[in-house]
Specification:
single chain, 293 residues, alpha+beta, disordered N terminus, globular, Jelly Rolls, four-stranded antiparallel β-sheet
Length: 293
């Protein structure tokens, strides 16, 4: 298998969800990978919220660290994650839909913690099969970006009403992305919730405990800063809440399943291009860092 490392073959376009759907989605995006036959890209998705991905051809292979693997599925769905997802990708056109916790609550409605760190064939999954009708319009090159985006928004508008817990979910999310937030006790206080209630809300709609979510935010702030400045040293991009370098290395390994130096040595053609363009267009390089407002 020969691997192309350059980014010239990657084109990504972001679409802002309309105002009535914006609290539910990180963004809609179209990714085009233009490679010669037999060429593939290899990369690792970083921890993120749930995603729905639709491929026009050459569906990729995606694999979780525990060995869970999906290959050849034109509709791949992932739950919220706290670990990397390894993937290989050839020439294709893809639509991606990132679900905020509120979007998970509205359009899926099941316990997010039960789907954390999973990747599935969306058409075969009872949980995600409700989105399978999107394949008819997204898993093809027969329509323009604008036509496919219009179909996406119309589909989700008809799918479900906002959940009763909408305000609480949004408040938890707003507090969680504060880069100054450090302690779970402060997290609960700013949300106006007891620690036990915060635990329940986070597990059901966010997929993880409040403590792990804060740790993930800290890691992603550092990792995103590094990806945007590849010439910088890890020490130059460490989040303020890490005690020291060894603390960061321990946390990096817990989430990314490798050391920072091992991660830096791996190819990241898709993520590097994607995050840089996302930062330029969207103002945020990673969906976990998006402000839900």
């Amino acid at each position: 298998m020969r691997q192309l490392i350059g980014q010239d073959s990657i084109d990504v376009r972001f679409f802002a969800p309309p105002a009535d759907l914006a609290p539910c989605f990180t963004t809609f995006y179209r990714l085009e990978v233009d490679l010669p036959p037999g060429e593939v890209l290899e990369d690792w998705l970083q921890p993120e919220w749930a995603n729905l991905r639709f491929f026009a051809e050459n569906a990729p292979t995606a694999e979780m660290p525990d060995g869970e693997r999906v290959e050849g599925a034109r509709f791949q769905a992932t739950g919220p994650s706290s670990c990397p997802t390894h993937f290989t990708l050839g020439r294709t056109r893809m639509w991606g839909v990132g679900l905020f916790p509120l979007g998970w609550a509205r359009f899926i409605g099941e316990d997010a913690s039960a789907q954390a760190n999973t990747v599935v064939d969306g058409e075969r999954s009872p949980l995600f099969a409700r989105f399978a009708p999107l394949c008819g319009k997204l898993c093809t090159r027969a329509y323009s970006d604008e036509e496919q985006f219009a179909f996406l928004t119309a589909f989700f508008r008809k799918l479900a009403d906002p959940p009763r817990d909408q305000k609480r979910i949004q408040r938890v999310h707003e507090v969680m992305v504060d880069p100054h937030l450090l302690q779970v006790e402060e997290f609960a206080r700013k949300c106006g919730l007891s620690k036990r209630t915060l635990e329940r809300v986070c597990a059901r709609h966010f997929g993880f405990s409040p403590r792990l979510l804060l740790r993930r935010q800290r890691l992603m702030r550092s990792l995103a800063a590094y990806m945007l400045e590849p010439e910088a040293s890890w020490s130059a991009v460490l989040d303020r809440h890490y005690h020291d370098q060894s603390h960061f290395v321990h946390e990096f390994h817990a989430f990314m399943r490798c050391s920072p130096s091992e991660y830096a040595a791996k190819p990241h053609p898709v993520m590097s291009a994607f995050m840089a363009e996302r930062k330029r267009v969207w103002g945020s390089p990673a969906q976990t860092l998006d402000d839900p407002q």
